[in-house]
Hints:
By secondary structure, the chain is mainly alpha-helical. It has helices spanning 30-40, 47-54, 58-69, 121-134; strands at 105-108, 111-114. Helix 1 (30-40) packs across helix 3 and helix 2 (47-54) packs across helix 3 (58-69).
Amino acid sequence: MKNGSFSMETTLEFLTTRKPEREVDRHWPDEVKAKIVSESLRPGTTVNEVAQRYGLRANSLSTWRTMARQGKLIPPAPDDAVEFAAVIVDPPVSELPPKMLSRPEIVLGPVTIRLEEGASAARIAAIARALTAAT
Length: 135
């Protein structure tokens, strides 16, 4: 102190409550939220990646995703959306087994016996028995 006066260095310090730019709370319109949610639902994309891209907290994006599941946000269809067409499948048409021969034949050596079309198994067996008994 000299001659009744004193000197003091002053340092000013400002304290703010402002968050870093990345974490600033913003009001996001529902259309923008829905678009961001849609991006986060793409295969191979993580919530953290998308949140970081838009400068928002991952838990905010998770909340928006929950809102979308509850129908409170309607995400737009992705640009690369797969579209489906209606397909009607008719029951299979029962096909008859192809006919090998139009008439059954019994071949015994040089002898061939051709039976009438649609001959019953009993008739074919009776003829086969008669042929074997004759030989």
